[in-house]
Amino acid sequence: MSVRDVEDSLGLKVCKKQALVIDRGAGVWVWDVSGEKFLDFTAGWGVTCLGHSHPLILSAIQEQSARIIQNPNSGFTYSPARAELMIELQKVLPAGLSRMFFANSGAEANDAALKLARKITGRSKVVSLMGSFHGRTLATLSVSGGPQNGARYLPRVPGQEFSPYNNCDDLDLVIDNTVAAVIVELIQGEGGVRRLDLAFVKHLRSLCDRHECLLIIDEVQTGFCRTGRFFASEYYDVAPDMLTMGKGIAGGLPFAALVMTEKLASAVELGDHGGTYCGNPLSCAVAAQVTRFLRKHNVAAHVAALGDVALNDLRQLKAAYPDVVKDVRGLGLMLAIELHHDSQVWPLSDECQRAGLLVTPTRNAVVRLLPSLLLTKEEWSAGLERLNHALAAFVAGCERNTPALVCGQN
Ligand SMILES: Cc1ncc(COP(=O)(O)O)c(C=O)c1O
Fold first, then answer.
1. For the chain, how many structural domains are there in total?
2. Are residues 125 and 257 in the same domain?
3. Which atom of ligand 1 is nearest to the CA of 188?
4. Partner of 216 for a Cys bridge, out of 162, 183, 331, 407, CB 3.0 to 4.6 A?
5. pLDDT band at residue 70 under the 50/70/90 scheme
6. Are 103 and 246 contained in the same domain?
7. Which tens digits make up the pLDDT trace of 361-372?
């Protein structure tokens, strides 16, 4: 019986469209159980920033797990691995964000930010943006703006307001002195790689200052060099009160962090936040190595340069397939191909898979590319060739089935 048969018999085949059974990975490549090789432009939802099975991560896991994985009474005891991570993070964090809380996922870090914002401000209202995504806990879904998110699990946590992104006038209406916090992604990832305008973010900062509410910047997807800076906040030159991070932070281990200013942290008391695995030595040791590697090798500069090349190539692809590709955009190696219609996203992603390339189907008619940050120019070109091949096959398939129509538009 194959792995797939076992999964099917247990009802585990959650997503019929991409029933790949992945066996192993190395760098930007993964292999399924039958030995077929794929170029991975998903990095596991943007997590494996150094690629799969990077030797640095393997040795950090090996070394730390031989010492200790989980502390006794963790939270009341500390570890050198945790201290090392804090030192490394201090070298890359935006100025003023010196106090750190660790978590196991991006949602958990955001949840902690929202919870502590209530305690710090004594208010409960939260403003977030339409199209945003902040995680899948009840509180983070409640502030996530797509119809597929919080609306599935109504009612949301009370005291939530959504504002359209890049609309300063609406912000003026929703932000007042009852708001505890505003939470935003500077580039909406799940919403289709949509960037906030500089003027909008500056306006948001000034409103938060005026009404003494907290600005939480969610860099779970954009952080750790993904956009060509260590944090996307650097493009905006705006200081958040809290910043959350996850995904790439530990190169594949489930780990995340919430950082805040000293002033805010002074209102947080022992027991206000914590969790069994938060800041465990194993994840801290790996995160410290990943953070140091990204900084020492100036991976952000590589990502920015390769991202420019990639976006330029994607523009040519758009020109070659105008009936399928409506827009291409991105920053660094957070790239989006927007199609003319939502229903084209899965068929094109399937075509990519057949061409040996894994991409991430995304909301709002977008196919996202989030490859490893160590992707080389040659690997990018190999991916582009597969993408080209997939688009050609997609168009040919459409013409065969519905001549003169582009697939999925009706
Ligand atoms: C911007 C953003 N915030 C939060 C999350 C949730 O992170 P996690 O899936 O680690 O809980 C995600 C996940 O995609 C994200 O993109």
1. 2
2. yes
3. 1
4. 183
5. very high
6. yes
7. 998 999 999 999
